[in-house]
Each structure stands twice: as structure tokens, then as C-alpha cells.
Design goal:
The complex is a heterodimer of chains A (75) and B (148). Chain A is built from two helices and three strands; from the N terminus they run βββαα. By secondary structure, chain A is α+β, with helices and mostly antiparallel strands. Chain A starts with 10 loop residues before the first strand and ends in a 6-residue tail after the last helix. The model of chain A has no long low-confidence stretch (mean pLDDT 91). The mean pLDDT of chain B is 92. By secondary structure, chain B is mainly beta. In chain B, the strands form two sheets. Chain B has a seven-stranded mixed barrel. In chain B, strands 1-2 form a two-stranded antiparallel sheet. The chains are: A alpha+beta (75), B mainly beta (148). The interface between A and B is medium-sized, with 28 and 38 residues.
Chain lengths: 75, 148
């Protein structure tokens, strides 16, 4: 992993289109600004991880699931 | 074409009905062709079956059946990616994680599936706010509760 030290208001450029700036440092919290093309999706890691985990949980249901569901979800 | 499915054996599907997740789903980046399968006798749940991998299928549902006021705004990027022109073309589904007992099942409201019904382009859209949980409880009136 590439490690760079930056101060407030300094930035990093990734490729031609992406700029990551350090906007403020307040105690344990760092405010980061990200400028990137719209096609680059930016997520907080814990949210993306949670979605990944949930998807894999939802994909790993037992194959006899339908028997269990019978009669449970009729409106 | 015929495909092997996780829950309902071998079935015939209409290629016109394939749903294209061009960038896959989080955790399943390589899976980009799915098909929605109705469950006989069940008007709440559907199966979202991968066409490439028979063992991969999700149970999905209309989140509005459980959360009437569920609402969010689509950003410009997804509107462009899915080439959405009309709100009426948009179908919103939530992936359900089924539990036994059924009422302990949850639905993912933070990352709904957005499908453009017109061109069958789809994407799992991660909402940027924390307003809706990944594991939202479901509560469905059971037959007993309805007095059936």
C-alpha cells in the first residue's frame, strides 16, 4: 500500500480525474473531499462491506427454502 | 433458452426477459445476467436467479409491501447508467434474507435493486444516507392474524 503524509488543505491526485483532499482534521476525525467523475462510485467502506455481507448472506439460503415458505406469504 | 435454477429446477426463460446488471452486485461483481422468476401461489416474493451460476439466487420482494413510506431519490449517475427516462419504467425490489421462522426475515432497504423495465438494465443502488437499514425487519399479517 502506498502511504503518503498530507496536511490540511493538501490533496492527492489519482490518475487524471480523481482528487482526494484533506479538508479538516479534528481530533480523531478527518474530513475528506473527493472529486471524481460521476461514473466512479464512492462509498464509505463499512456501508459497502455491509451490503456485500448482506448479499452473500441472502444468497446462501437453504435449497429447501421454498418448502419452508409455503403458505407463509399469501396476501 | 433453458437454465438450471437454485430453487425451481430447470426452467425455460425468454431471453427478452433477462435483466442486465452490467457491473454485477456488491460481492458478486461477475454476475451480470439474472432473471426474475415468479413463485407459484406466492404474490409477495420472487426469485432473482443468476443465469450464469445456477446456485446463485436471491429472494426479492417489493419493499413497499412492508414499508409503505419507503422513499429515496436516484442520483444522476444511476439515471444515466440505466438510461431511465420515465419514473414509471423503474421497478424497485429489495433483497430478502429469509430466516426460520419467516417473520424473523429481513429486507435490505439500504441497497435496493433498481430495474429499468423498458431496457432491462439494473443496478443495486446503495443509498448514501443511513436512513434505511441493511436488515430491516418485516412484518406481514399472517393468515392467523387476518383470521383466515
Amino acid at each position: 500500500m502506498l502511504v503518503l503524509s498530507r496536511k490540511t488543505k493538501e490533496a492527492i491526485r489519482i490518475g487524471d480525474d480523481i482528487e482526494v483532499s484533506i479538508l479538516a482534521i479534528e481530533g480523531e476525525q478527518v474530513k475528506i473531499g473527493i472529486q471524481a467523475p460521476k461514473s466512479i462510485e464512492v462509498y464509505r467502506k463499512e456501508i459497502y462491506d455491509a451490503i456485500q455481507l448482506q448479499n452473500s448472506e441472502a444468497a446462501n439460503l437453504p435449497e429447501n427454502l421454498l418448502t419452508m415458505l409455503e403458505g407463509k406469504t399469501k396476501k | 433458452m433453458h437454465i438450471e435454477t437454485k430453487y425451481v429446477g430447470k426452467i425455460e426463460i425468454d431471453e427478452q426477459k433477462l435483466i442486465h446488471f452490467e457491473t454485477g452486485l456488491p460481492g458478486f461483481k461477475e454476475e451480470n445476467k439474472f432473471v426474475l422468476i415468479d413463485l407459484p401461489g406466492n404474490d409477495v416474493l420472487q426469485i432473482l436467479q443468476s443465469v450464469q451460476t445456477s446456485e446463485l439466487a436471491f429472494i426479492v420482494t417489493n419493499p413497499h409491501l412492508f414499508y409503505k413510506d419507503y422513499e429515496f431519490t436516484l442520483d444522476e449517475h444511476i439515471i444515466e447508467t440505466l438510461q431511465i427516462e420515465n419514473e414509471q419504467d423503474v421497478v424497485v425490489l429489495s433483497i430478502m434474507t429469509i430466516q426460520d421462522p419467516f417473520h424473523a426475515s429481513t429486507i435490505n432497504l439500504q441497497a435496493p435493486l433498481i430495474i429499468n423495465e423498458r431496457n432491462k438494465l439494473a443496478k443495486q443502488y446503495i443509498l448514501s444516507s443511513d436512513e434505511y437499514p441493511v436488515k430491516a425487519k418485516i412484518s406481514l399479517p399472517t393468515n392467523e392474524e387476518k383470521g383466515v
